[in-house]
Amino acid sequence: MTENYQPEAVIFDLDGTLFRAETILVPAYHRTFEQLRKEGLYTGDTPPEEKILGGLGMLLEQIWKRVMPDASALVYSRANELLLHYQLEELKQGTGKLYAGVETGINILYEQGYQLFVASNGLENYVKEVIRYSGLAPFFKALYSAGEFQTKSKVDLVRLLMETYSIRSAWMVGDRSSDVEAGKANGLYVVGCNYSGFGQEEELDGADLIISSFDCLVNEIMKTSNR
């Protein structure tokens, strides 16, 4: 179902949709490579930031293959640990930022009675801590991550979420092709976010609606409501 129907739930991607991931990712990324070099697990210069920023929305193992294609599984595992550690440190220091309109918009949707969820390809602790430190935790019914549920694709993650909460109608909101794929495969109305600047324009091909700000999303959802 892809018509512009009134949803009972809204399922959000996290990075590039709600949260400006680069605000904590970039400093954590450089700190990660500094530590990898100290531990003798990596030599040479830190790969360009664009390598990891361009991989946002992918599973972490896919991201590291983009960044360090010749590294071992051991290095990938250690890089995961370090990156998460440093990102959480950045969060605690108040470095992380939401996109404009997210805090107000999420509150409006919650007050209107919509069930709100996050479905992310990130690690469990990352997803939960970003939402907690951003002050959004009270508004979300559940936070689903590939790290927690060990899903191999966002299609599977969203399907699991919908089955668990018996969701019949929802909008899928995200900035990457994996979000479009997950929404379409699960029969959802798909909203593509093009304000992060990290994905390619064609990644949102197939979305039912493309928005340039979070405020646009809230306005579109409210149009479907007769409340």
UniProtKB/TrEMBL annotation:
Record key words, sorted: Hydrolase
Domain of life: Bacteria
A GO term for molecular function: hydrolase activity
Pfam families: HAD_2
InterPro entries listed in its UniProt record: HAD-like_hydrolase_sf (IPR050155), HAD-like_sf (IPR036412), HAD-SF_hydro_IA (IPR006439), HAD_2 (IPR041492), HAD_sf (IPR023214), PGP-like_dom2 (IPR023198)
Keyword Magnesium: no
Name of protein: HAD-IA family hydrolase
Source species of the chain: Fodinisporobacter ferrooxydans
